UniProtKB/TrEMBL annotation:
SMART domains on file: SO (SM00201)
EndoU domain sequence ranges: 97-370
GO cellular component assignments: extracellular region
GO biological process: immune response
Protein name, per record: Uridylate-specific endoribonuclease
Record carries keyword Hydrolase: yes
Organism expressing this protein natively: Rhinopithecus bieti
Domain SMB positions: 45-87
Class in the EC hierarchy, top level: lyase
Amino acid sequence: MRACIPLVLAVLCGLAWAEDHKESEPLPQPEEETEEALASNLYSAPTSCQGRCYEAFDKHHQCHCNARCQEFGNCCKDFESLCSDHEGFSHSSDAITKEEIQSISEKIYRADTNKAQKEDIILNSQNCISPSETRDQRDRCPKPLFTYVNEKLFSKPTYAAFINLLNNYQRATGHGEHFSAQELAEQDAFLREIMKTAVMKELYSFLHHQNRYGSEQEFTDDLKNMWFGLYSRGNEEGDSSGFEHVFSGEVKKGKVTGFHNWIRFYLEEKEGLVDYYSHIYDGPWDSYPDVLAMQFNWDGYYKEVGSAFIGSSPEFEFALYSLCFIARPGKVCQLSLGGYPLAIRTYTWDKSTYGNGKKYIATAYIVSSA
């Protein structure tokens, strides 16, 4: 699969960053997603690294945000604050390096034996548009995105456990989430199933070696809190969580926020609730998982640019987002998948905490790919 236009994936789910930060507050919170802001500003604000971290060098830009701009002394002034690759909350004595993150991400990529094979998914990506057209809300694709998915994938334990979680949420923010005993058990079942996989065992082994977790149970308990712990994006207490936002999707102020999962997209499209409009990026991978940045309507609400891995297992996405949140909370996290670079950006939820001052995941998304 190839990019339909020569652009960095900052226009992907990275648009969730602009979506998340349009409303000005002293410490802007990523629940205020305004994807259109980045779509319109990405190319009109060449003096900033907003949405441009680690993009390819372009001689036409006034300043640069590529990996070697510091070497040549031509970085934009906000490169360090927006694109810095420091250790986040780590102490320097046990900081996780960029090279270590790239190495473990490759191991996770190779370990994803539950991913879709080429014959399991037939995509019909159809019309590719430019970033300037994403605001049009025009349906340029008469056919669904997914022509075929081998639903035998969904009988695999981690897929089945993941799908069980998707109907446990109210998509509108401002309405408190109240989980039944069965729904809480489904969260535990999902974590239990993914922790059996080679993907999550690779991640735990890495983080244990990095002195982040003393036991697998400690790691699992922390994952449950950071992903499933409730906080408030709207007026109602406990109306959102990292899992709901990233994987299931939400609607706030008349717009789709989050919703970055291909399984969720396929199931909603199959039910006639998602209408695929177009895409602006199709990733370089020639097998699954791949990445697609698209426009769509979710039962009456528009998503200007939403990205998703395509064909990945639930544990693969969960592992990469968790890795980046733990190693680079609130920062750019540079990965390597099958030899191709990919960057993910996470944001912490700063209005409430769990445990000993730990922060929940507010959002996680892809911001760049060379």
